[in-house]
Task: inverse folding
């Protein structure tokens, strides 16, 4: 291996606004099993992709109910939505609102740019802006979208290293990606190809970039269709453990990130189909099968990843499904409600339930204080209000 200048270490002395910290600081606690003053088994932080203010509120409510660490991620398309088409304006809007919630919070959270592309002029501006406004960024330079192929290792390392050089001195953690993940997360994140992370390239990548967080590709997919209906997604857990051995030898504080890890809860699908049938007008015939065809990643597979060093579990599709399923139920309940805040509350409460159950599944609770409910009794049920679901879990 050729000699090179060592990348800058993450500045862990940087202090962000009240209750904000880097994603690496929180996920490292999870990998090491730290909760309060005790140390137990590893757990993971679900990283919730946030697309609306309601989504931010739901996430904070869930984290604070559970005493959980929080990880809020924004994609380029989400930033455009927050900023009226301008992602840089969206960065300011989202970051300022999250900071205002964090200031009054009982837990700590990190803000993260998901799929930051440093290979284009527009993408570079967003990543540079994210380094100034967020506490963590992803430098997703593994895919050559123009030519629909994987980018060379040397190019990926070069672009990612530039982001590390800019972010680490400011205390902003950086996530890289090695390999290509297929599927479509949103309009700005999609790929028709998929390649596994190669162990021989992995060591070179983490050594020469200095990233402390990395998304290896081990069989997950973006989007709501991760396989054929009735089949189970099969992840390469053996490869994950092989990569973990390398990471523990080269840099033990390396955190693995699972992209395309949405679970897609069966009760959410069943609730949506039920509401479509209730709405009539051929809705169930037109859209019901689409809902039934959705395939997610089995949670048992994700649990296997947590044991292989994965401490950040990205979730987006399952949250969108929960929102839409709850909205269909709200429209069926009252399709002439003029006060749109009523619909907002219905969907936000449903999102909060979704966030609660995912944090509980990942053992991300009791980190900053004792949960305000009995985690073993909590049931995720869109037929029940959030208040009743919490009351039933006491």
Result:
């Amino acid at each position: 291996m050729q000699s090179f200048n060592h990348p800058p270490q993450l500045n862990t002395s940087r202090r962000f606004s009240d209750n904000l910290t880097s994603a690496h600081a929180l996920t490292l606690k999870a990998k090491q099993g730290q909760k309060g003053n005790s140390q137990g088994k590893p757990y993971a932080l679900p990283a919730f992709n946030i697309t609306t203010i309601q989504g931010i509120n739901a996430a904070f409510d869930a984290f604070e109910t559970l005493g959980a660490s929080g990880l809020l991620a924004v994609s380029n398309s989400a930033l455009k939505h927050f900023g009226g088409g301008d992602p840089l304006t969206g960065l300011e809007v989202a970051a300022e609102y999250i900071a205002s919630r964090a200031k009054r919070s009982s837990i700590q959270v990190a803000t993260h740019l998901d799929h930051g592309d440093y290979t284009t002029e527009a993408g570079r501006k967003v990543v540079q802006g994210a380094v100034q406004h967020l506490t963590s960024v992803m430098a997703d330079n593994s895919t050559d979208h123009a030519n629909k192929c994987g980018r060379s290792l040397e190019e990926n390392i070069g672009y990612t290293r530039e982001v590390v050089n800019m972010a680490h001195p400011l205390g902003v953690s950086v996530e890289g990606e090695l390999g290509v993940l297929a599927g479509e997360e949103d309009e700005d994140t999609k790929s028709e190809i998929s390649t596994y992370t190669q162990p021989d390239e992995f060591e070179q990548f983490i050594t020469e970039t200095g990233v402390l967080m990395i998304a290896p590709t081990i069989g997950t997919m973006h989007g709501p269709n991760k396989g054929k209906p009735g089949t189970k997604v099969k992840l390469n857990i053996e490869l994950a453990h092989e990569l973990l051995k390398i990471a523990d030898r080269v840099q033990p504080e390396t955190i693995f990130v699972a992209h395309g890890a949405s679970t897609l809860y069966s009760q959410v699908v069943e609730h949506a189909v039920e509401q479509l049938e209730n709405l009539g007008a051929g809705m169930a015939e037109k859209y019901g099968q689409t809902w039934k065809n959705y395939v997610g990643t089995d949670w048992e597979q994700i649990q296997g990843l947590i044991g292989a060093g994965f401490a950040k579990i990205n979730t987006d599709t399952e949250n969108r499904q929960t929102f839409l399923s709850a909205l269909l139920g709200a429209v069926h309940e009252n399709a002439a409600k003029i006060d749109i805040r009523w619909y907002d509350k219905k969907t936000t409460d449903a999102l909060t339930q979704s966030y609660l159950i995912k944090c509980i599944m990942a053992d991300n609770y009791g980190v900053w204080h004792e949960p305000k409910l009995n985690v073993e009794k909590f049931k995720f049920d869109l037929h029940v209000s959030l208040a009743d679901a919490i009351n039933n879990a006491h």
Remarks:
- The chain has a mean pLDDT of 90.
